[in-house]
Structure formats: structure tokens, C-alpha cells
Amino acid sequence: MNAAGFGIFAVIAFVVLVFFTIVFMASRYKRCPSDKVLVIYGRVEKGRSSKTMHGGGAFVWPLIQDYAYLSLTPITISIPLENALSLQNIRINVPSTFTVGVSTVPEIMSNAAERILRLPQNVIEEMAKEIIFGQLRLTVASLTIEQINQDRESFLEAIRRNVEPELNKIGLQLINVNITDITDASDYIASIGKKAAAEAINQAKVDVAEQSKLGAIGEANAVREQEVKVAEAMAEAEIGRKTADANQRQRVQEQEAAAVQGENNANANIARYNADLEIQRAKAAADSEKGKKTAEADQRIFVQEQEASAVKGENTSKANIADYNAELEVKRAAALKQAEVAKYEAQVSIQQALYKAEQERLRAEEVVRQEIEKNKIEIAAEAEAERVRREAKGVADGILVKYQAEAEGTRQLLQAKAEGYRQLVESVGGDPQAASTLLMIEKLEELVSRQVEAISNLKIDKITVWDSGGNGNGSSTSNFIANLFKSLPPLQDISEMAGVQLPEYLGKVKGQNVQPIEPTKPADQPPAQPTSPA
User: Fold this and answer.
1) What is the pLDDT of residues 511-533, one digit of tens each?
2) Which 3 state secondary structure label does DSSP give 45?
3) Is the pTM of this model over 0.70?
4) Long-range contacts made by residues 154-160, C-beta under 8 angstroms, separation at least 24?
5) What is the CA radius of gyration of the chain?
């Protein structure tokens, strides 16, 4: 290959190497989607176990680094919290829905990378659910029912303060909290609502009564003012009319008087007419004054009647307002009484529940204690039974060994006796009669000892003998003693009872032909005579 071909090959190899390098580098450059968190782990910055980022991209070195993604998709968790104890020791139900998700705050993302990177979503949801349950109970226990039910913003803020820091520890953040309908077993919340509704209704009634009162007062004032104005106008009209009539009459009279004076004192008829005219004038003036006074009196009566009617209306309105206020106070007192009764009934229910729970706990402790005592007694009884059984087995084994040893000794003794008897029979030439005689001779000493013992054990305090001289046969006392010794069975009789014949040098059994050896008697001793005891 020439230099030109080698150069072309080198250029192609270099281009291929650069291409594959670019492809490899591009394959190791990881971009982070907007709905995920990129976690690079392995050899990262010193003092950190992983590197997290949201958005953008980063190069992942082969062999020494790897990557994974955390989803930012929100997780909705239903929390059916029931029987949570409030600050007033009233148990309430707070069903709620929490929406959580992985946080994009760098420190919290690091917590998520360390604790929930490869956990399934159901495990993460269960973990967050346990945290929310505990913190929600803690939040409810620090607030009253009024604060929970009426000031929802403060309640939600308290939940955020308690729940979110705990969720941040595992890399999650609280996105939303939705509290549905809060209820309680003792209907305390319903009682609060009824109380508020009753107060609103009573206030509305008070407002209506107040406006009705103001309307009635305004209407009465308007009617009174109208009637006063009308009376004043009528009085002024009547005054004007009477004044005009009086002026008219006065001018007429002045004209008539001028005519009379001008006619040089008219005749008597005119004089009488003038007198009548004066009388009528006086009467007219009196009637006019009387009518005026009557109109004024009627006017004042009408005005007083209107004022009395107005005062009566005002008093009626005040009485109605007082009735409304009294009724409102009565209803408020009844509502307060009902609330207090419900409160104390709830406290009594709580105390009863606590008492029952304490009884159950004590009963459970007593059952456990009795069970433990029972087990101890059973174990002690089993141990005692085992001890007695082992002791009895030991005693039985000892008795068995004792009897076995005694049986073995008896057996060996009998074997030894049998062997001795066999050798004894062999020594006398196989004659069993001679052998039994030899055995009987061995027992003679014991038999004699028994006879001596029989005589020595006789209990005789006193013996009285009446001696008659003996009749030449010896004294009665000697005869008594001789007969006493004769009452003992001789050796030959005993041997005969045993079926043994003694040797001849020991004498023969009484009744045989061999003459027994008679003892020598003194010459001057008479024969013995039987004596009778006193």
C-alpha cells in the first residue's frame, strides 16, 4: 500500500472513530423531561450519594455512573380519618383527600432519590398515607371543633404545617388538601349549626320587628302631622271666613247707619229693626265666638287623641320588642342549655367509654395474670408430678433391686444348702435317713435350749404343797418336781414326731424292748407321790 492509500485509510478510520465517538457521547447524554426528575447515581460529587435535576440534561459516564427517573405525576390519596380526638376530647370524622407528588426543590429531590427512587407507586402511596394519617390526627388533636369546622383556612394551614415537613423527609410535597364533610358521633357539629341557624332566625325576627316598629312610628307621625296640618288649615279658613263675614256685616251696618242718619232719624220700625239688628249682630258675634272656641276645643281634642294613639302605638311597639327580646333570650337560653346538656352528655359518654376501656384493659390484664398463674401452676404441678414420678421410680427401682438381691441371696443360700445336703447324703453312703439323723443331732443343742428356756420363763410367785408324809414313796415336794420335769417331752418323743430315730447310745423311744437305764435312788427315799397344788 502506497502513502496515498494509507492516508485515505487513516482519514476514513479517523472519521469513523469520530462518528462512533459522537454517537456514543450522544447516547450517554441524558435529557430530563418536564414531568420527571433525572437522578444520576454512582460516582458523583464528593459527599453526595446522587445528583438530581429537573429539566435540562447531563452526561452520564459509563461504568462509574448510572441514571434513573422519578415521576412528578401527582398521587391522590384518600384519607378516611375516623374517631380522631379533638382538643375538646370529642371524637370526629374528617374524611379528606390529599394530593402529593415528588418535589422539585433540590434538597427534597435528594431525599426522594435516596428513599423512593425505585419503589413502586403503591408502596410510595402507602408510606405517604401512614405519614398523613399520623400528622392529621396530631393536627385535629390541637384544635377545637369550632376552629376545624368554621375556620377552614386556618385548619388547612395547620395541616400543611404538620404534614408537609414529614412528607419532605421522603422527598414528597403536599400539593392540595380537600376536606369534605366533617362529622362527629355526638352531633356536636350539627348542634352548632342549629344554634347558628336559630341565632340567625332570631336576629332576623328582631330586625323585622325593629323595622316594623320604625314603620309604625313613622306612619303614626305622618298621620298625626297630616291631621294637625289639616286642622290648622281648616281653622285658618274658618277664621278668614268669619272675619270676612264680620267685615261685610260691619260695612253693611255702617252704610245702613249712614242712611238712617241721612234720613233724619228714621221711624220706629227702622229703630226696632236696628235694635233687632244689633241683637242679631250680638248673637252672631256670640255664635261666631262659640263656634271658634268649639273648633279650637275639637282641634285640641283631636290632637290629643292622635298623640295618645301615637303613644299607644309606641308602647305597643316597645311591648312587642320586649316580647321579641324575651323570646329571643328564652330561645338563646334553651339553645345554650341544649348545647351544655349535649356537651355534658358527650363528656359522660366519653367518661363511660374510658371507664369501659379501663375495665377491658384491667380485665385483659387480670386474664393475662390468671393465665400466667395458671401456666405457673401447671408447670409447677408437672414438675412436682415429674419429681414424684422420678422419686417413686427411684424407690421402686430400689425396692426391685432389694428384692432381687434378697431373692438372689435366698437362691444362693438354698443352692448352698442343697449342695450341703447333697454332700451330706453322699457322705453317709446315700442314706437319707442317716443324713436326717445327723441334721437332727445338730439341732439337739437348740432343742435342749428351748426346753430350758421354757422352764426358765415360767412365772411362779409361790407354790404351796401339803405334804402327807409320802407313804414311803418320798416326799410330796420331790414327787411334784419330778413330775414337773416329766411333763416336758423327751428327746425320743421329739425325734419320733420328726420321724427320726436317735442312735442307741442316746437311748430308745419309750415302749421298745430295750430296757432304759434307771437312775439310782437312795435307800431311805420313798417313792414319789403326786402332789396337788394349793
Assistant:
1) 544 444 444 444 444 444 444 44
2) coil
3) no
4) 155/179, 159/135
5) 75
